[in-house]
Specification:
There is one protein chain. By secondary structure, the protein is of the alpha/beta class. The protein has two domains: 179 residues, 3-Layer(aba) Sandwich (Rossmann fold); 86 residues, N-(1-d-carboxylethyl)-l-norvaline Dehydrogenase, domain 2 (Orthogonal Bundle). It contains twelve helices and eight strands. The chain has an eight-stranded mixed sheet with strand order 3-2-1-4-5-6-7-8, with helices on both faces. Helix 5 links the parallel strand 4 and strand 5. The longest helix is centred in the N-terminal third of the chain and has 18 residues. It starts with a strand and ends in a 17-residue tail after the last helix.
Length: 283
């Protein structure tokens, strides 16, 4: 897979485009929002510039990575000639159906269609397509250019050759891969969101401060980042929606968003993207 297309240039999409281009792939980036793809490209450049400043990326690699990314202005332009198309739009099944139907109509017959969803069933996403066997989950983690994991989610209809192709692609872009069955929350969201919700309940009950709860998991369990800081990074609104979905699908109240989380979302305290969540974030 050398020609990669990414739909959605937001938090996850621009990161996916970044790692694919850094691995030598030709990348096209599309966003339905006017100026969205250009904004995503600017974020990629900013992350590369930080890498250069810290001595992690050479100027030559920075320039080469940017040269491999092109902005597409239509789904047709995006999909033309692509080997792999990764969808990274908001977590709405109706929206994903709209995107995947458009991609199926525009993409080459052999192109793999992947979703970066963290919670929605891959089988549900693929259901309206004429060929659901080409659809697979490619769940990346934020920030994509730093996090080493790629969770591959296999639906009942996903063909074995599609699984093999995506697994090989994960190795090509320097990711460690895990393969999981298409169940609600997969492996990572199911565990991570449950932990995050319990951490929020602990803050709500006055067990400890967000800083101390996070420190407990970082120093006591060697997590790279605590569950509350991670919730801020993902977005409280995003995690709340995922929690509600998992609570319904799994019949497990542990995933239900605590009242504190609901109140913070209503007040616009969404985490890093809003400048305030469980922590204060610089603009």
């Amino acid at each position: 897979m050398d020609r990669i297309a990414v739909v959605g240039a937001g938090t996850m999409g621009h990161g996916i485009a970044h790692v694919c281009a850094a691995a030598g792939c030709a990348v096209r980036l599309y966003d339905a929002m006017p100026g969205g793809a250009a904004a995503g490209l600017a974020k990629i450049q900013n992350n590369l510039d930080k890498g250069v400043a810290r001595g992690k990326v050479t100027q030559e690699d920075r320039d080469a990575t940017l040269s491999r990314i092109a902005v597409a202005h239509t789904i047709g332009d995006l999909a033309d000639g692509a080997d792999l198309i990764v969808e990274a739009v908001p977590e709405s099944l109706a929206l994903k159906h709209e995107v995947f139907l458009a991609l199926e109509a525009a993409a080459p017959p052999g192109a793999v269609l992947a979703s970066n969803t963290s919670s929605i069933s891959i089988g549900s996403i693929a259901a309206p397509l004429a060929d659901p066997g080409r659809v697979i989950g490619a769940h990346f983690f934020n920030p994509v250019h730093l996090m080493p994991l790629l969770e591959i989610v296999v639906a009942a209809a996903t063909r074995p050759d599609v699984v093999s192709a995506l697994t090989a692609f994960g190795a090509k872009i320097g990711k460690e891969t895990i393969v999981v069955r298409d169940v609600a929350g997969f492996a990572t969201s199911r565990l991570g969101v449950c932990l995050g919700m319990e951490a929020i309940r602990m803050v709500e009950q006055g067990v400890a401060s967000p800083e101390d709860i996070d420190k407990a998991m970082v120093l006591g369990y060697r997590h790279p980042v605590g569950p509350l800081r991670l919730t801020d990074m993902v977005g409280l609104d995003v995690r709340m929606a995922i929690g509600r979905h998992l609570a319904k699908e799994l019949g497990n109240p542990a995933f239900e968003p605590p009242e504190l989380m609901q109140r913070m979302v209503a007040e616009g305290k969404l985490g890093a993207k809003a400048g305030h969540g469980f922590y204060v974030w610089p603009s």
